[in-house]
């Protein structure tokens, strides 16, 4: 069975490894990954793999390497857990590998992986949902679900967060990334704010033609950015120089600065040498924010699921699904993703 091991120091350095599976432990189940997506969100997982978030820790790998997490569907191929049936299919969080062994703790809609090394992680990442009990599942749109389900959730909650700020303008960096597109889509649904996308010259036409942004701005023009105040900056890029430019341009009209992604994984993570104008950037961690909002208003969960299912077909207006299969092709696709060579209109859906 194949696994793709990715260097923690250089995401372009990978090893495709053929592993021999050990006997399955008592109380465990083994799932085979059927379908998954690769987007810049996976680059964020790898770039933020160390430290507080510890995305590398979900799926142990040899020293110096990691198995990047992906979202997708997998089928149980072996089970020593009485409540988990062979042949059952689950949506969830998997390593970039053909198989995953879990220690399932049964829930109403599937199970939680109770493996000890995952106990301290946010429960959102440990949930595996049986497709027969999944309110977000739609058999017509499996590829779209692998691509957008986690990203749309992030964008939906980010838009909810922004609207709590009573802002007039929202500026999104890395505007062509799938999570930024989802965020812009939900902001347009909610209305009442101007949505501005910052992007590169190569992606400018795509961002503009997506119809999700009121205005498109190039990175080089960020220092001269003008928007209606109060404003919010939602950062998916993670490039210190851009953050400084946006803060300086918007100055004290900027009411909130939110960090969500790191699509530029080679950018320095060091804090700025001087304080930025406006609010200090804050990291937006979806599991924590969503849990608090759902506690205050439980109906938001159903609203998000409804909007998610509508988004699957709506995404066809700006993303074309591209199917890729085979271990070698997966390794080559990761190399292209790490090098920033994936056109924004391509939605990469893969299988071993």
UniProtKB/TrEMBL annotation:
It comes from the Bacteria. It holds the Pfam family DUF2855. The lineage of its organism: Bacteria, Pseudomonadati, Pseudomonadota, Alphaproteobacteria, Hyphomonadales. This is DUF2855 domain-containing protein. It comes from Candidatus Viadribacter manganicus. InterPro entries: DUF2855 (IPR021276).
